[in-house]
Each structure stands twice: as C-alpha cells, then as structure tokens.
Design goal:
The complex is a heterodimer of chains A (about 270) and B (about 290).
Chain A (H helix, E strand, L loop, with lengths): L1 H19 L1 H4 L14 E10 L2 E11 L4 E5 L6 H9 L6 E5 L1 H4 L3 E4 L13 H6 L3 H4 L9 H12 L14 H15 L3 E4 L8 H16 L3 E5 L3 H7 L2 E6 L1 E7 H4 L2 H10 L1
Parallel strand pairs in A: 3-7, 3-8, 5-6, 6-7
Antiparallel strand pairs in A: 1-2, 1-4, 8-9
Chain B lengths: L1 H8 L1 H5 L1 H26 L3 H22 L3 H22 L4 H26 L2 H9 L7 H30 L1 H6 L5 H24 L2 H11 L5 H26 L3 H20 L1 H10 L4
Helix pairs in contact in B: 3-8, 3-10, 3-11, 3-12, 4-5, 4-6, 4-10, 5-10, 7-10, 8-10, 11-12, 11-13, 12-13
The chains are: A alpha/beta (about 270), B mainly alpha (about 290).
C-alpha cells in the first residue's frame, strides 16, 4: 500500500524533478564527441582568502580540446583556480566564460584528501554515478547500464573490486575508481586537482592513458600537476601559476628555468 | 509466570493511556530518526545536529513565555530559532574547518544559556527541568498527532529524495556538477522538524540522543547504508520500549531512561563489533 503510494507520487513528482534537475534530461545530446565550444575563458579573476589574495588578475584562455597542466609553487592558487573554473568558488572580481559548465558538461575531481574514505560506498556505486544523466535523481537505473560500469572498471583495472568498499582500497585504487566515473560521465571539460598525488606508478600510467584518450576525443582537460617531467611528457599546454599567470602556452616554451625561477620568487 | 511477564512487559501500557501515547510517540519518532541519524553520521554532522537541538530552545522558551503551554507556540518558536541558527551555522560552514568547530560550540553554549535564562526568568525551576530533559509521559493526543505528521512526512520525503540525498552526503560537489541542488537544506529541514517535535518528549539536552545513539549502534553492524537505517530505526524502537518499561518499573524519568537504553545498545554494539580488536590489545599489548 505504502509502496503504491510512493510509486504513484513518484510519477507525479517527475515534473517537479524535471525542473529541479532539468539539465540531466537534455544531457543526452552531449554524448559522443564534444563538438560545442568547450573552451574556458577567464577574465581578470581575483580571489581573496581572508586578507590574502589567492589569485590576482588571472586572464587567459583554455583552448577547446586543450590538455593543460597547471604547475606552480605551494600557495600559488592552483586549486583555487580549478575551484573558480568549476564554479565552486566565486571570485570577488572578474568572470569565467564556460558554456560547458552551463550545460552541466563539466566534471571536477577534487584532491584525494577531500574524499571521505570511511563512507560506506562501494566501487561499483561510485562508478555507477557516472551514468547519472541516464537515471537522474529519481528514475530506476536500467539493468543494461551494468555493462557500461563493467567496461569502465575494466578500463582502469578494477574489475574484481566492484563490490569492495572504498575503505578497503589503496589511494591509487580509489583514484582509479573516480577516473572510471569520469569515463562514464562523458564530460566536455575535465578539471583534475592533483590526480597523480600519492598514487603508485602503475596507477599513474593508467590515468595518463585516460588523459590521452580524452585529449584525442577533443575534450578540454586541465590538471594540477607537481611533477614537471610529467607535464613535459604528457601535457601539450602548461600554465605556470603564482597567484597570477607567470607563463601560459605551449609546454616547451613555458617550462623554462627562467619562468620557473620567476614563479618561485613571485609566490 | 506468564502472568508476571505480562505485568512486566505489557501491563503498564494496557493500564495507563499516558504510557500508550508515550510509546506510540517514541516509536514514531524512532522510525524517522533512524535514517536521519544515519545520514547525519555519514555526513559527519553529529555536532551540527547537537547544535540544532539546542537552537530550538530559545524560540521554544519564548513561545512558552508568551503563550503558556500552547504546543503550537512552543513548536513555532522552536522552529523559528532553529531556522535562524541553521542559517547562521550554514554561513559558518564557509569558514575554515577549525573555526567551524569553535563556532558550532559557541552556538551550542549561547543558545542553551539563552534558553535556560528565558525559562528560568519567566517560569519556574520545574519548567527549566522540563525544557532541558523533556516529559515523554506528558505527551497528549495533539502532540502525538504532530509527531505522527512529521514522522510520516520525513519518511515520504526520504523515500522520494533518497538517491540525491545519499549522493549529497558523500560527494556534494558531484551532485552540484550534474545539476542537483537543495539537498543539504532539505536534509537540515527534516532534522530540524524532527528535533522540534522531539523537544517536548526529550528536551533540548536529550533530543539528539534518540537520533544519534541508535544510528551509531547500527553503524557497528553493517556497511550497507540501507540496512543501517532499518537497524537504527529498530534500535530506536527497542530503546523506546525498554526505556519506558524501565522508567515505569523503577520510577525513573522516562526520557533519560530511553536515552540510557539507547546508549547501552550502542555500547554493546561497539563491544561486539570490536571484540577482535579488544582481544588483540589484551593479548598483544597496545600495539595494533
């Protein structure tokens, strides 16, 4: 009886759901290759943390389909910039132009430390959320989606761990699970905050392969990176940040000793 | 033998309508408190819940001062001051975590002190004890109706919004990215509503107990959130029943008795689920 009431009111609430979670329902047009303008332009962005300026007058453009490493000393505002791009932090001055964000085509992966590893959630459940736009907040996920979850788990080498809780996994394995979720999310723009921090070498290779795949699919990928060799080897574009851009462009011409020294002295 | 068992376990509820009403009220509260308590724990917001339970007090006290023992005034006042403090703690949430803790404790202390002062100034010492610890046995049919409405509403809302609420408790940023919003506010509203209707039964100091203790006990037994919620409601109901019996037979205050039983269930759960760890510590010394 109660179940019947809930089911029927679910149907009745579907229209309310559509308003509340509107963007999920037209998300399907975005599937496949992201061809719309998925670049990001930032104009004169400044962010305050208390009295200190975390970012100061950051202007520039992440080209559509670019793969950019953000490097810089501690406290350079790298994470802050990603937060601003993701729309999680509002700058006190300046603006971000990102049409993908308005279309909910933007995915943001915070640092490992932001994740509650004690939360009782399984690898399969985390990865399955990547298919959110197929079921949204209220519909029952179609059984066929299980194949796509399995496929994504296979791509990151976690097939056997689908029913494990994240509390039982290593840092690298948790990273892989979140990358599998990104794989299914099919976002136009991916913002990754220190994706390679504290993970094993094998995992780094798996994650780099996924980055290359997304780059080939013309998605815009921006990652905060600490290892300069990694940036040189795998990222065509680099932004050196020290509260304000020190250099921004093609990696080879950006990552010079002179620019790096300048970044250290400004931060 | 069976007769004495009957007198022990069922008799009090058959003989006294205030016992029956108290039992039904506590069972209804426990039903909604189970899932809410689990979500509160999973969000690591136990302290926020505690603060909210005290936030109800100054408003309820004002309602009490102006309208005497009117249930509606009490609830409306409690709800109003709860919303106010929830809004303020929401602002606090944007500050650094360390300051967040200190801020919550500040709210906790100030709202409690303000509430006690108001009640003591305009009422009597008996009133003060009542708002601090509640009066389960004084619940009347109208209060029961209020509890039933809130409990039902809570269950329906949770059933409808379970998925976005669960995702929000684990990964709120993700939910925002895919376009979901408002879950934090909705959840806080449910917690506040339940605390307001728990206020009369358990008072401002204990209202959070029937929500948190059964949930904490349930966490010891399983890693599946759904089962956790069912267990938490079950533990809450068990402690309501056992606590009321305890208070009847031993002539103890009923609200605290219920909370003590819930605490005992938590203690036993903790002990049993960690028995391996404890054994290891005893055998091998303190090294894990």
């Amino acid at each position: 009886m109660l179940a019947a009431v809930i089911t029927s009111s679910r149907a009745a609430l579907d229209s309310a759901a559509r308003t509340m979670f509107r963007r999920n329902f037209n998300g399907d047009q975005l599937m496949g290759s992201p061809v719309a303008d998925n670049g990001i332009e930032v104009r004169e962005i400044s962010v305050r943390h208390g009295r200190r300026l975390a970012l100061e007058g950051v202007s520039g453009r992440f080209e559509p389909g670019s793969l950019t490493a953000i490097v810089g000393p501690n406290g350079a505002g790298k994470s802050t910039l990603l937060n601003v791009l993701a729309g999680l932090t509002r700058p006190y001055r300046g603006e971000v132009v990102c049409s993908a964000r308005a279309r909910h085509g933007l995915a943001y992966l915070p640092q490992q430390t932001e994740i509650d590893r004690d939360y009782p959630v399984t690898v399969g459940e985390i990865v399955g959320l990547g298919l959110w736009r197929n079921f949204g907040a209220f519909r029952t996920p179609a059984p066929a989606l299980a194949d796509r979850i399995a496929e994504a788990l296979g791509a990151v080498g976690l097939t056997d761990l689908i029913d494990r809780r994240i509390a039982e996994l290593s840092v690298g394995q948790v990273r892989r699970a979140f990358f599998a979720r990104l794989l299914l999310l099919d976002a136009e723009v991916l913002l990754l905050d220190e994706p390679f921090a504290a993970v094993d070498a094998g995992t780094v290779d798996v994650l780099l392969a996924l980055l290359a795949r997304w780059h080939a699919q013309r998605r815009t990928v921006i990652a905060v990176v600490h290892d300069l060799d990694q940036a040189r080897a795998h990222f065509p574009s680099t932004l050196i940040l020290a509260r304000t851009p020190v250099a921004w462009g093609e990696t080879g011409s950006v990552l010079t000793d002179r620019n790096l020294a300048k970044a250290l002295s400004t931060a | 033998m069976s007769l004495s068992l009957y007198a022990l376990l069922i008799g009090p509820f058959e003989g006294f309508s205030f016992m029956r009403i108290a039992l039904v009220a506590c069972l209804a509260l426990a039903l909604a408190n189970g899932p809410l308590g689990i979500l509160l724990l999973l969000r690591r917001m136990a302290l926020d819940g505690d603060v909210l339970s005290h936030a109800v007090m100054p408003g309820a006290a004002l309602g009490f001062v102006y309208a005497g023992h009117s249930l509606l005034a009490l609830s409306a006042g409690g709800l109003a001051s709860g919303v106010l403090v929830a809004g303020l703690t929401g602002l606090l949430g944007r500050t650094k975590p360390a300051r967040h803790d200190a801020g919550l404790v500040a709210f906790y202390l100030v709202t409690l002190a303000l509430g006690v002062t108001l009640v003591a100034f305009f009422g009597s010492n008996v009133d003060t004890v009542r708002v601090l610890f509640g009066t389960v046995l004084a619940i009347d049919v109208r209060a029961l109706l209020q509890i039933a409405i809130v409990s039902t509403l809570t269950m329906v809302v949770l059933a409808l919004f379970y998925r976005p609420m669960a995702v929000d408790s684990f990964d709120p940023v993700f939910l925002r990215m895919v376009g979901g919003h408002g879950m934090r506010g909705l959840f806080a509203a449910l917690v506040l509503l339940n605390l307001v209707v728990s206020f009369q039964a358990f008072g401002t100091l204990l209202a959070i107990g029937p929500m948190l203790l059964p949930a904490a006990a349930a966490r010891c037994w399983t890693h599946r959130p759904g089962i956790m919620m069912v267990l938490a409601s079950g533990f809450g109901m068990l402690s309501s029943y056992a606590g009321l019996l305890l208070s009847y037979h031993r002539n103890l205050p009923s609200g605290p008795a219920i909370v003590i039983v819930a605490g005992a269930i938590y203690g036993v759960s903790l002990l049993i689920s960690n028995i391996g760890n404890f054994a290891q510590i005893i055998i091998k010394g303190n090294d894990p």
